[in-house]
Amino acid sequence: MTARTPLLEITGLSVGYGKRQIVSDLSLTVCEGDIFLVLGHNGAGKTTLLRSLFGLLKPSMGRVCYHGVDITGRSPKDNVRDGICFVPQGHAVFKRLTVQENLTLGGFIEEDKSTLAPRIEAINELFPILRERRDQMAGTMSGGQQQMLAIGIALMLAPRLLILDEPSIGLAPNLVIAVMDSIVKIRQSLGTTILMVEQNVEKSLPIATDTMIMRTGRTVYLGLPEGLSDRATLIQYL
Amino acid sequence: MDYFYHVLVMFCLYAILATSFNVVIGLAGLFALSHAAFYAIGAYTTAILTTAYGVPVFVAMAIGVVLTAAIGAIAALPALRVGGHYLVVVTLALQVIVIDILRNAQGLTGGPDGISGIPRIVMFGQTLSTPGSFLVLAAVVATAVYFALRLLAVSPFGRALRAMRENELAVQSVGKNVVALKLIAFALSAGTAAIAGSLLAHYIAFVSPQSFSIDETILVLAMIILGGTGNLFGAVVGAFILVLLPEILKFLDLPVGTADLMRNAFYGLMLIVILRFRPEGLFPERYRYTLPAGAQRSAGAFQLSPLTNTENGTVTLAGENLHKNFGGIVAAAGIDIELRAGLVTGLIGPNGAGKTTAFNLLTGFLTPTSGTITLRGRPITDRRPHRIVHSGVARSFQDLKLFRRMTVLENVLVAFPNQLGDHLHNIYFRPGSVAAQERANIARALEILEFVGLRERALEEADGLSYAEEKLLVIARLLATEAEVLLLDEPLSGLDPNTLARVLPIVRRLAAQGRTVCLIEHNLDVIREVCDVAAYLDGGRVLTIGRPDDLMKDPQLLERYIQ
Amino acid sequence: MDLILQLLANGISNGSQYALLGIGFGLIFGTTGIVHFAYGPVFAASAYVMWWLIAALGLPFLVAVMLGMAFAAGFGVLSYLVIYEPLVERGSPSFVVLVASLGLFIVIANSLAIVFGTDAKTLPDFSYGIYFLGDVVVTGVQIAQVLVFVAVALTLSAFLKYGTWGSAIRAVTDNVDMARIVGIDTRKVAIVVFAIGSVISAIAAANLLVREGASTHVGFFAVFYAFIAVVVGGVGSIRGAAIGGLLLGLVESTGMWKLPTEWQSTIAFLVLFVVMLWRPTGLLRGN
Q1: Is B261 a member of any domain?
Q2: DSSP-derived 3-state class of residue A85
Q3: How many domains does chain B have?
Q4: Residue of A217, B98, B307, C27 with fewest CB within 10 Å of its CB?
């Protein structure tokens, strides 16, 4: 059992404007090797939380530290350069570009371009359908395939911290299992730490090492997934 | 002194132009750049009719106004299909075409030299040939226009325009016909600009294409932006400032041509500065920030009227084998659903399963790729959303779609059905009835707000509500539609137990009173407590239907969805 | 028959100019979403600057054109940094950005008229050849216009297809949110497209200068034709803007067969109306 080193520390984070605080005074710590699961109802502020961590939104208050360095409000490109990658909600891909071009763009800021081809190969191993559809326009693929491409894009930089916003949304149950399995594989083979928002409690809870439940912008539960094994407790929070 | 009167006459004309343009830009939120073209059509129509055809002045002016209003409605047609920059380019094109016609149709319009010798207006035996005498007419007309448009702006029609600006989908979901709203807004705005044009023609007795270029539209736009879009009084103030300010340039000794150019450049600069530092302009938009005394007093306790015409258990809204594809994405793969009066049906299933798609299909927001939708047995598959609302079916949205820059009270008011004030002829010919109904509606709206616990917030902007309050407002807005069939998309997610305890009985009572209720929810305890029937959707299809308790014991379901 | 060929030749030549303006404007609009109305006045200003460099300073033509291109690039980038970027950063709705653009349009257009006056500034010493293809007459300028357009279009296409900046621009055009997420500096991309788009307009300005000289009203028509070309062809597609421009040129030219010259522009705008009602997202765009 390795010691848990904090990778991402969030303290007192609030995001919103004026009277509308979408995230209020939120704190959590993600340690290296974690699969940190964030749950909550629609509209709880989960997406806002992730987007503000990644730098797409500016927090109104609070601090975000990565490796002990304050990265609060830092721009996405600086975060990406530092090994933090983000998979936004809703199969976010470049719809009018091919699968190959999409993946290549994932490695846009990679200075050593020779690492890209092997990484694309590894991603194809993880999601074989992407190899088949190499030259197909991303927008013409099915929702599930686009979602796999979206994850693939984020893997192109072999990130240390991978942030995912509802990766299983709209996917058929067997695909959800595939996505969850691949997340576990990513963590195993690349040593990537995972911070993930999910709606599908049943499939995501088993792979989580830590959980947080949000309701209307605040934390209502923060702890080990075992604490939620009882459905009654779970429903109470959601 | 004459010159001073002249400036005031121009101010009156621009006040008419600015207020009418503000109806389209500020109230309706439609970005059209063709206002100077309508100004021109009004001016030229009366000029041509009076000079070439000897038509009496007032008749010619009236024809000009009606013609321009008609052209305005035609100009709105592209606005129905496209928005944003497309509308900009199309209205810009209209502007250019009109000027082109004015410049080129020499026979009709006198070409670049324009038409001169336009007869003056004669009123009560007086020929209005001096600025001073014309000023009286101009001021009277400008005042009349201002009050007429103001009456429109505060009426239910004006409220519908603003709600459309805030959220076009939501305004359809409360039964407003956006096609009619857009056409009328454009026609009204164009016709009013023509009034100013007609006055101009008979005041200066000369029209030429130069006065009606795109620069003119931008000038009027600057007046609205300066004054505050959406605020008609602001538009008048903006007109005043921008007509008067360049007069100061007269004190500088500039060659004639340059003065105009400098004035225009100044307008442009001012526009940039305002947008940078105070984009909302001088006067913010404020509607319905006070309550009429009568309304406060007559507000009692909210009564849900029971429905007696439908027997409990009859199928009201139903969808059969509904499919919906978007390119590669399959949103619905054969949904079969029947909603019955007196029952609360729950739709459960993972995100992306097709629940909201089902709602969109049933309420006309999406057209099915195949399949049929019926209401009380009659097909409504291709009916537009607002017509479906009139038939008694209303829905809420998962992402709320509140009218953010309107007050809480207005959010509820806009949803009432059968408002006399939605129709122009009532606003102007039956203002008393409209006002009376408005007072009654305000009272009823206050009752509904009291019922959901938002009474204190009635006069606040919806933008400032907390999350739970927003969800309560969504319910209030839905109650206001008085619809028989209510589809609620995640109305309760994220509500704390106290609010939940207050809201759940409302849902139950709606059904008990004979209404058809359908809910999308993720909270299974809520489903069990409130629903008579539950349908489980996955992969765009309804997989199981039954009583909530039975559903939740289904092993397949347990495996896929519930823990 | 010869008349048709002549009209075709004129149409292609004019269409090339519209297409050139279209691809520059379209690059800016498609990538940043900003309707850069001031594009027209910047185009006009470039023409004036080039004229002045040649007529007043006696610089050789190509040098003046190069300097004109640099001027346009600088002006375009400055417009973005000073006017548009602060508004976009603040989260202003696109309507506000558009009105600001109109404001800039008016400021520049009127300032040009104040500085240079309203008469056209031509290059009297410039002579061009006249060529006969059968009975069809084409001037050297017309041929040059077509060649210049083809050269610029091919260069731009290649630039977008290969190379890092090209991918970055295409990414931002497709999905600006995703582009940010993969680490692309969208601000730099905006600056680059404003520069390139403005340079392209300067090239078109050189064409104009040679053909008819610089005058103040050209600014409006330039941006207007460019806007139509882009909308007709489909926003975000360079090929679409090019086809839109050529189509405009051809329809305008054909219209002249039956209608007097003054009605040219009206026809073009009618093309727009028809396309808008039939295929609102443009000819080349998908659904």
Answers
A1: no
A2: strand
A3: 2
A4: B307
In a domain, B73, yes or no: yes
Question: CA–CA distance from B180 to each of B183, B365, B426 (Å)?
Answer: 5, 17, 15
Classify the phi-psi angles of A172: left when phi > 0, otherwise alpha if psi is within -120 to 50, otherwise beta: beta
Residues 373-402 of B with CB under 8 A from A: 398-399
Within a domain: B391? yes
Domain ranges (residues) in chain A = 84-158
Do B96 and C113 count as a contact with CB atoms less than 8 A apart?
A: no
The first and second tokens of residue B200, run together, are: 């101009």
- Tens-place pLDDT, residues A52-77: 999 999 999 999 999 989 999 999 99
Q: CA of A235: how far to CAs of B207, B222, B348, B488, in Å?
A: 74, 55, 15, 21
Boundary of a domain, candidates B157, B192, B216: B216
* Angstroms from A228 CA to nearest CA on chain C: 33
In eight-state DSSP terms, residue B421 is: G
Residue B13 lies in a domain: yes
Residue B311 banded pLDDT, cuts 50, 70, 90: confident
- B368 touches B322 (CB < 8 A): yes
Neighbours of B294 (CB within 10 A): 14
CA distance B541 to B556: 15
CB contact under 8 A, A109 and C181: no
Set out the domains of chain C in order of their start, with CATH numbers: 2-278 (1.10.3470)
Residue (of A128, A186, A131, A133) closest to A160 by Cα position: A186
More confident of the two residues A108 and C3: A108
Contact C107 B272 (CB under 8 A): yes
A with C: how many residue pairs have Cβ under 8 Å apart?
Answer: 57
Dig out the tokens for C192 from the structure.
């680059």
Instruction: Kindly state the average pLDDT of the residues B490-502.
Output: 81
Segments forming the whole domain that contains residue B102: 2-216
The tokens for C232 are: 């007709």
DSSP per-residue codes, B151-214: HHHHSHHHHHHHHHHH-HHHHHHTT--HHHHHHHHHHHHHHHHHHHHHHHHHHHSEE-GGGGSH
Number of H helices, E strands in chain A: 9, 10
Task: Report CB contact under 8 Å: B328, A143.
Answer: yes
Residue B16 and residue B9: Cα distance in Å, rounded? 11
Q: List strands edge to edge, sheet with A61-66.
A: A20-31, A6-17, A61-66, A69-70
Say whether residue A58 is in contact with chain C using an 8 A CB cutoff: no
Structure tokens belonging to residue B511:
């059904």
Q: Do A108 and C167 touch (CB under 8 A)?
A: yes
CA A95 to chain centroid: 20
Q: How confident is the model at residue B559 (pLDDT cuts 50, 70, 90)?
A: low
- Chain B residue whose CA is closest to A201: B563
> Which chain C residues are closer than 8 Å to B267 by Cβ?
103, 106
Query: Would you place residue B560 in the very low, low, confident or very high pLDDT band (cuts 50, 70, 90)?
Result: low
Rounded to whole angstroms, the Cα distance separating B408 from B452 reads 12
Structure letter (DSSP) for residue B23: I
Please list every residue in chain B whose beta carbon sits closer than 8 Å to the beta carbon of residue A217. 467
What ipTM goes with this model?
A: 0.90
Burial class (CB in 10 A: 0-12, 13-18, 19+), B308: exposed
Q: Which of B184, B216, B248 marks a domain boundary?
A: B216
User: What's the mean pLDDT in C208-220?
Assistant: 87
- Which chain A residues are Cβ-neighbours of C240 within 8 angstroms? none
Buried b (16+ CB within 10 A) or exposed e, B426-439: bbeeeeeebbebbb
